[in-house]
Every structure is written in structure tokens, then in C-alpha cells.
Amino acid sequence: MTNIQGRAKSDRVTLHDVARAAGVSKSSVSRLLDERLPRSNSEVAQRVRKVAKELGYVRDISAANLRRGNTSMIGLIVPRLTDTVMAMLYEALQRAASKTGKVVIVATTDETPEAERRAADTLIGRGVESLILATARHDDPFTKELAERGVKYVQALRTDGIGLSSIGDDQLGGYLATRHLIDLGHRKIGLIAGPAFASTASKRTAGYHQAMQEARLPVDESWIVPSTFGIESGREAVKQLISLPDRPTAVFAVNDNIAIGAFAAIHQMGLSVPQDISLVGYNDIPIVSHLTTPMTSVHVPFDQIASAAFELLNADELSPQERTKISIPTLIPRQSTAPIKA
């Protein structure tokens, strides 16, 4: 028998390792360790289980479920469903899935990488065919880990720049939002930039810089405030901008929730939108058109992004250029933006 003690603990133990150590075939190990089958108490089965335990073998439920074939279930992982953007993505994916007789089941992570991994294992354990991830973070090896396990996945809305991705053109959207304010005569434009780990935030920030540079407008670093994607974060960020000695006359928030928080704080501080400060959000969630001052926002084509995500999942072979599908956003001007006062 192979020396079990000699194996490095950091190595992932495979069925092949157990088979070699137990002196049986890989197919025998797979059958004897499959908990869905009747438990055998033969001498061979007992030896296989003993070796598996000593080696620290953990059954890879992802590979097992992928071998079972079509289950008609797609797993979706999002930060939270209380975020309207993620709820809209889920509904769009559900509509796209229903056209092919599939159903989307969802798990949330609250933006925690560890929870994302647990969510993936839970969904795979339930037999999903593949995963759609709306939780991508820069420099996170999670998608690489999925690929190594043979798990089929696509990223939606956010991307790590490596795996299959269906996203909006966030840099263009950030450019359109900022360019709109510049065209209204604003020169001091603040940015509530969102979290740096999300491609949506970083690309929209890049669009802001692109528009400001194109217009040859200086950017004071104090005008750029990082935030989460939450309402309260927007509230605190805009207070910081308003308290500046030479405060911006307009603010672009890279997410509608952030913009809603900023909108509330501006009014609480005795100022008004757009008379004192013009405000632009992003995603065009339904509520922003029903605020007391309807908000200008960048509309994201969620249904296009959802359909493109399924196209990527169903594609057999893709060139590097085809691995990312980009949908085009549009600016929706409303009453929260106005020309700067002379």
C-alpha cells in the first residue's frame, strides 16, 4: 500500500489517489464512496473508506453533479437580493431561462468571498448544471478554482476580466453620465465611486475620468469618494463632498442606491436637487423615476445581459474575443440634472 503519511496536506486528494493507495480501480472507489448507492460492507469497501479517511479525501460534489447530466437548474450567486439591481438581474435571468425550460435558483453572499464559495458548493450540491456569478471581484482566484473543478460558469454584470462574462459597457456608461453633466455646464463634478473591487465601479470611474480628460477639466482628488453600493454609503459620501470648501456643483454616483442616499442627504442639509447640486445615478432602477425629483440615470439592459449570459453558457467553442459579451447602456435624462447657474 502507498505510504499515506508521505502525502503533503496541501495537495487535493483525488479518487485516483485513493484508488492507488487502496489497490483498487478508480471506478470501484467512485462507486464505493458514492453516498447515493447502497452501502457495501465488504472487505474492499471498508478498506477504501479507511484509506479515503486517512488521506483526507473529500468528495468533489461539483464533478459528481456535472456528470449527472442536464438538471434544468442554473445556479445564480449574488451579493444580496435586497439590492434592486441584483433582483432585476435575477428576474431577467429567470425570463431568459424560461425560454429554454430552465429555472434559476439563487444564493446570496453579502459580498463575502468565503460565503461565495459556500454558496457555490450548496448550489452544485443541489445539482445545478452551471453557475452564473454576479459577485466577481478583482484579483479573486474563485473563477480559476471553479474552472479547475470542471464547473461551468459565466459572470454577469461584473467580471474579473478572465472568465466568460456578460456585462454592460460600464466605462461608456460612466462617460455618458459625466459628459451629460459637462454638457450642462458643470465643471466641478464629484464622483461617488463605489467599491474598488467591483469592475462595475472601476469601469464607471474610468468613464468619469475619460469624459473629464476629454473636456480638459481638472479633477480634484477630493471630489472622488469611495463607497459601498448601499444607500447609507451614498448619504455619507455626499456629505463629505458638500463639506468641501470648493464643493462640486454636480455629482455622479456609480449606482442608483448610492444616488438615492445622496439625494436624501442633500435635502437633509437644506440644499435641493438640481437647483444646488445636479445628481446622476446608474442602473435606472424603477424607483428613481418616481422620486419627488425624478433622477437622471444610466439605463442598463438587463434582459440583453441575461440572454447573452445564456448564449455563453450554451456555446461550445469561443475565441478570446467572444468570451465577453458587452451590452450598451443609455443615459435617461430626468429632472435631477439642470444647467449650472450663471
TrEMBL record:
Residues 13-68 form the HTH lacI-type domain. It comes from Cohaesibacter celericrescens. This is LacI family transcriptional regulator. SUPFAM superfamilies: lambda repressor-like DNA-binding domains (SSF47413), Periplasmic binding protein-like I (SSF53822). It holds the Pfam family LacI. Keywords: DNA-binding, Transcription, Transcription regulation. GO terms for molecular function: DNA-binding transcription factor activity; transcription cis-regulatory region binding. PROSITE patterns: HTH_LACI_1, HTH_LACI_2. It comes from the Bacteria. SMART domains: HTH_LACI (SM00354). Transmembrane segments: none annotated.
